[in-house]
Structures are given as structure tokens and as C-alpha cells.
Amino acid sequence: MVLAQGTDNKPVSEETRTVTVNAHGAMILLGLNVSIGQLLTLRNARTGEDVACRVVYVSPHESEKRQVGVDFMKPCPDFGASLFLHLIGQLEVLKPKATQRSKSEI
């Protein structure tokens, strides 16, 4: 989730997902209108952890959601790691389980 100040200084938020994430920042998909230099807060939906960040890139391609690059205000190695491990856990659940064959089938 992204938390920001709207143009009228009221808080706004949007559910989003990361394209990439590391200890220093992330690339996210965002429908909110943001500008380079704007301060945002990213919230990890799994852990509830908040990270302050600054917009450093906004994709020039117009679409419903644009890629937005953000730098974390301070390195947060656990923010990306916990998200990555959460996604790996989801993949493990989705993997088809090997079926065991009975001795009569061998």
C-alpha cells in the first residue's frame, strides 16, 4: 500500500504491488498522480511495516498505472526480504505436489 498527501494536503492511499524491491528502494505500479521528489510511505501488507521514501522516477508512458521508482529514505534490507520471502511462500503453496506411487505401481 502507498500512503501520500493529496493535492489538498489530505491523506490518500492506494493498494499497489512492487515490480522490484531491494534494500534501497523499489519500482511500484501506481495510479496516483505523483511527482519526482514527492515523499511517500510504503506499507508492507504482510508485516505492516512502513517505509518512508522519495519518488525518483515516474514512467512517461500513460496508462491506468505507471511505474514509479522510489528510494527509501534509509536502507531497509528487511522490507524487501520479508516481501520476497512472502512471495516465495505463495509460490510454494502453488507448486503441484508430487504424487506418491504405491508399490504395486512400481
Structural write-up:
- The protein has 106 residues and is an alpha+beta fold.
- The protein has one domain: Thrombin, subunit H, CATH 2.40.10.
- Helices cover 17% and strands 39% of the residues.
- The protein is built from one helix and seven strands.
- The protein has a seven-stranded antiparallel β-sheet with strand order 2-1-5-6-7-4-3.
- Strand 5 and strand 6 form a beta hairpin.
- It is globular and about 30 Å long.
- The N and C termini lie far apart (51 Å).
- About 17% of the residues have low confidence.
| CATH-defined fold name | Thrombin, subunit H
Helices and strands: which structural class?
alpha+beta
Low-confidence stretches: 82-99
How much of the sequence lies in strands comes to 35-45%
Number of helices: 1
Query: How much helix is in the residues?
Result: 10-25%
CATH class: Mainly Beta
Number of strands: 7
Sum up the overall morphology in one term: globular
Overall number of domains: 1
By oligomeric state, this entry counts as: single chain
